[in-house]
Design brief:
Elements lengths: L1 H11 L7 H16 L1 H25 L3 E7 L5 E6 L5 H8 L3 H15 L3 H18 L3 H20 L2 H35 L7 H9 L3 H23 L5
Helix pairs in contact: 2-3, 2-8, 3-4, 3-5, 3-6, 4-9, 5-8, 5-10, 6-7, 6-8, 8-10, 9-10
């Protein structure tokens, strides 16, 4: 019971917001990760986990039956659900993936701007545990367990300073990584066209569901992720909007 009371106190008690240079430094570090191919390939697994969590969450919310989540070694993922193959529910489910890291990033930025970095870490733990329940392949299980282990170590044993830096780095990663992933999807679509292969991207799926061009959905997803980045960045640097 003492542990629970202490944990609840840590979650609900705001801490001091780091100085601006710390916030900017974590953003710069994340930009390096996004720019270095090897680092991006490793870190992108976290983005994929949240991406698939977005698909799964919306699928459940619109009344579809979740069949499972897969995360692959090439950082791609797949969320399967049962229900009507067309209609608003399926469109919402297909759309939810790429904005999911942005939604998490904006929510995280809101918490950090108010000093709730520990609350953010616990929220991320809950999110990853939720994905763990739905994982249906061995590589995905390994990727999620590694992610969960890192979060448990930082949340349970790291110092307050390390927790704050980690929370800001993760938040910047979701905010900056989401537009990067949309650009990557568009590059994959171009490559598929050159090879005359079927467009299996989320934008391609949305195009088939709505009869609007896949490029339209790429633009919408880019707009959503960039707008979320702008809002989250404003909160992270201390400007209240």
């Amino acid at each position: 019971m003492d542990w629970l009371r202490e944990t609840w106190s840590d979650v609900t008690t705001p801490s001091a917001v780091p100085e601006t240079w710390v916030v900017v430094a974590t953003a710069a570090a994340v930009l390096v990760v996004l720019a270095v191919p090897v680092a991006w390939r490793v870190a992108r697994h976290a983005l994929t986990i949240v991406h698939e969590a977005g698909h799964a969450t919306v699928a459940v919310l619109v009344g579809r039956r979740l069949s499972g989540i897969r995360v692959h070694s090439d950082t791609s993922g797949l969320t399967l659900s049962r229900g009507r193959p067309r209609g608003p529910g399926m469109i919402a489910t297909a759309f939810a993936g790429y904005p999911a890291p942005t939604v998490v990033g904006v929510g995280a930025a809101w918490l950090l701007a108010r000093g709730y970095d520990v609350a953010l870490l616990w929220a991320l733990l809950v999110l990853v545990v939720g994905v763990l329940v739905g994982i249906r392949n061995w590589y995905g299980l390994w990727a999620v367990l590694v992610t969960l282990a890192v979060l448990v170590v930082v949340t349970g044993w790291a110092s307050a300073q390390v927790q704050a830096v980690f929370a800001y780095a993760v938040t910047w990663f979701f905010l900056l990584g989401a537009p990067r992933a949309v650009l990557e999807m568009q590059a994959g679509r171009r490559d598929a066209r050159r090879r005359r292969a079927r467009d299996t991207s989320d934008a391609g799926l949305l195009g088939g569901l709505t009869h609007l061009p896949g490029a339209f959905w790429v633009g919408v997803l880019a707009l959503v992720t960039v707008a979320g980045l702008a809002l989250g960045a404003l909160w992270l640097v201390g400007l209240q909007v």
